[in-house]
Design brief:
The protein is mainly α. Helix content is 84%, strand content 0%. Helix 1 packs antiparallel against helix 2. It is globular, with a radius of gyration of 18 Å.
Length: 109
């Protein structure tokens, strides 16, 4: 065990820093998303209520790993299909977006 910490300790600390950064960013964005769609579900406007319900049901019905794969692999392909070349997400960006959308849907409910 000590050997693993001696050899990979720096990498583990760097990964922990990235994980904490992704967690904090996702929490902030998820709170904003959850607040917006939560208010859409409460307001007495049928259109906004319908959009809020569709978002919450659709995102909560998709497993997080599927959402993460779709954002990391599918979103750049879809944007490329629209004619915008050179769009690419790194792992931190895709993970933050996926966690934000997923947690935002749970917060909206």
């Amino acid at each position: 065990m000590i050997f693993i910490i001696q050899v990979y300790g720096g990498m583990l600390l760097a990964a922990m820093g990235r994980t904490l950064l992704m967690t904090l960013l996702s929490l902030v964005f998820a709170m904003v998303i959850g607040m917006i769609f939560g208010l859409m579900n409460v307001v007495h406007n049928r259109f906004f209520n319908c959009i809020g319900t569709i978002y919450v049901d659709a995102v909560r019905g998709v497993p997080l790993i599927v959402l993460a794969y779709f954002i990391y692999f599918g979103m750049p392909s879809a944007i490329k299909g629209l004619g915008i070349a050179g769009f690419r997400l790194n792992g931190l960006q895709a993970g933050t977006i996926a966690l934000s959308l997923n947690c935002g849907a749970y917060m909206a409910e």
